[in-house]
């Protein structure tokens, strides 16, 4: 499965402190833990001895460094996964083959990322969010939001402007202002780029003081990751050179179950974080029931299975991209 060779976000980096953390990715249970140097580890959440969940165990200091201790019989595993200690037989030296199943893990953009299988070709990194390295943009994490739908349905919702006047009426749109002017969309090596997308929005951002014509750019940067950049007309926010960019990060927990975070980047350093989160919660909780009502929950890659108009050309191209990448998880 090609999805297993991609990096996926599984938790906010700040969630992972002293205790191991259970997460789910691509239908598999994983345990995350952090060693004394702060490095993150992601293993199958299953002890190779008798199958207990390692996430119920604890991180302990061993001879060669921190170790993960199984909750059942106390076997201890080094950060590379090797079993170092069996308490029932203290003088027994476990063979090197006694080990937990380990996966690649790293931190990027405020999240912990995991790659279940080493890729057949090349060692790609987690997708890049340009605003991450821009000191003029402050970053605020919103979520997690757990949603009973597939990751591709979430990406399509993020790319979709035609729902603003209905799902987000009075906020991101109005039903009598729902016209979508033509926009440009083009494939990129990692997904697609849509530019020149315009919407009339009563309350475009948490900073809005008046309705505005807003110009959006969307970029799909990995099969389940997208970024939008919003440029509202300056007068409507009352902040010079206001810029805002949002990364959509999705953990495909199951084919029809996802965990979502928004990494919100803004040039406004004054606004309190709580109001930014509250705005994002309001918008996303408007999307959630509609997303969970879609049938099928997986996105059909046969373009004849659903109807499309020219206003949907970003999502049509997204479907073609998933098909060309050989994506099988969350699609049908
Ligand atoms: Fe983990 Fe026995 S099941 S130590
Ligand atoms: Co929406």
UniProtKB/TrEMBL annotation:
CDD domains: Rieske_RO_Alpha_N. InterPro entries: Cholesterol_7-desaturase, Rieske_2Fe-2S, Rieske_2Fe-2S_sf, VanA_C_cat. The keyword Transmembrane does not apply. Its EC number is 1.14.13.-. It comes from the Bacteria. Transmembrane segments: none annotated. Residues 7-114 form the Rieske domain. Pfam families: Rieske, VanA_C. Keywords: 2Fe-2S, Dioxygenase, Iron, Iron-sulfur, Metal-binding, Oxidoreductase. GO terms for molecular function: dioxygenase activity. This is Aromatic ring-hydroxylating dioxygenase subunit alpha. It comes from Variovorax ureilyticus. The lineage of its organism: Bacteria, Pseudomonadati, Pseudomonadota, Betaproteobacteria, Burkholderiales.
